[in-house]
Amino acid sequence: MAALGWLTPRRRSATARSVLAGEASAEAARKSADVSEEPLFPVPGDEQAAAFFDLDNTVMQGAALFHFGRGLYKRKFFETRDLARFAWQQAWFRLAGVEDPEHMQDARDSALSIVQGHRVAELRSIGEEIYDEYMAERIWPGTRALAQAHLDAGQRVWLVTAAPVEIAQVIARRLGLTGALGTVAESVDGVYTGKLVGEPLHGPAKAEAVRALAAAEGLNLSRCAAYSDSHNDIPMLSLVGHPYAINPDSRLRRHAREMDWRLRDYRTGRKAAKVGIPAAAGVGAVAGGTAAAIALHRRRR
Question: Active-site residue numbers?
């Protein structure tokens, strides 16, 4: 019978390495279960959820107002010295990646003086052409995918920008978004007066616009998402339950890390330390827009 001893299983005591292996396996299984139980975001069919996207350097590389100025120059709306100022402002914005209040104010003042006396319908039509010429190729594919994820989930998506509302509406419609909130230039009988209606939609004004729109549309801000590159939009980002820092400036990046907000940087193609992209966004090519364009802002006539 001793010869058959090899058939009898031997009980071996667990070594430190086997204990470690077992604990590691159990931990991996637990983490895997936790990941599988995470709720999908954006949540499909949540009618009280929506997404709000800043435009400049978030959805599009550079500033929409500067690209618009370039297109107006091509159409003889102003002279070479004005174009040089627009070019400098745009170059500074591209290199610094942040909004300089003086540059932005100068650009707005220039744009208002340029369009004064022109018809709103004319600028809208020109805006369509300028989008194709200077803006379409500057849309960040990654941010576009995030917006499409919300649309695919059946949610509404708005641009929220200090850019002229006419340009914002063109971009929103071309991307298949729901609509746009932007700065409104005063017009009388369809002709621009060279003045603004109120103030530019910037900083805290964006947050107020989002709050008002959410109330009017029956949205639950705690279930909404907002995306921006600028620390100026912290008030808007702080309103929602899902804030995202996209291509963030240094101040927003620091604040986002302190608040444990999700980060994403498309400027180099690398992921930031804390990615957190909505699961439905994916990493492949973006499908064409499917939502009908709804122009929410109308100017005074």
Answer: 54, 56
